[in-house]
Fold this protein.
Amino acid sequence: MEATRWKKLIDELDHNHRLSADGYRSLLEQRFTVQDADLKEEMDRYLFEHARNRQQQNFGRKIYVRGLIEFTNYCKNNCYYCGIRRDNRRVERYRLTEEQILECCAEGYRLGYRTFVLQGGEDSYFTDDRICDIIKAVKLRYPDCALTLSIGEHSRDSYRRWFAAGADRYLLRHETADEQHYRYLHPDTLSLQNRKACLWALKEIGYQVGAGFMVGSPGQTMDHLVEDLLFLSELQPHMIGIGPFITHQDTPFAKEKNGSVEQTLFLLGILRLMFPSGLLPATTALGTLAPDGRERGILAGANVIMPNLSPTAVRKQYSLYDNKICTGEESAQCTQCIKGRLRSIGYEMTVDRGDHPDIQ
Ligand code: 5AD
Ligand code: FES
């Protein structure tokens, strides 16, 4: 490939917000197989500059924050990569009460958060009614805040009820858009088809929707990543969360290799050009694999950060992967930490709810 081909692809992506499957493949292949360190750096610099231009055009130097409340680590699923999978007997299970969840929101509100993300495993204890009660309680106390759910696959009817109760947004990563690869990462009880159907249903109901995938998960190929990009192009989610796969010692993938920070950053840059006004978090997994991972994510085009508001006492138990950061800190400490990190790269935290620009 001549030296300017990748530049043309980045220019085309910046201009059209999309490439053909071959275009994505050739851009990723060139970047992920290149040996020459100078060329690597040149590609990153070129992509990230364009990505930051789009990011700053749409959002200035403001970064949205979402307060993450991990309210249950019970899960009936058995995904091979995930530390809170059902068969992991070594993780101590917990559930927060409604009062505890509200206390996390209260602390978050004091610290300036105007979006709360209620995330958990697929825990049957939290019936539709219980989730509705929690949504209503949070929205009653914090009517000016956006409420996001991230609790996995449910029926269209459940999604409808929760939306009617006041939930605004829903995060459900598709994890991989390739059928075979999906089956490689999940037991037979789960299917990509259902995952995608959930995402389309959520969109149709009116949620602001987040999808996303892991980078470098076991068995992932360049073609799988191309499929991820094409699927996202079709779905047009409001948010896209990506992070490197990280092993967890008590899962079937314990001996696999971690995903790469560099690949995640390059994909963030591509996603920013595909979705100039999209919401792209610099994820905790990125910050776990590199001490400055989240800052580098922002400099590659990300514009959201999701600090942990869970009670410190349970944070270690929400162990999706090994060495997860922020498990010893208090919410106030994480908030200060994030503010400092953003300032160090010339960005600032905004208290705006940060709805997708298309929503009003
Ligand atoms: N490494 C990285 N990310 C993971 N997730 C779950 N397990 C891991 C892991 N081992 C991600 C999934 C899920 C999100 C909540 O966390 O993408 O959707
Ligand atoms: Fe939690 Fe830095 S964000 S300690």
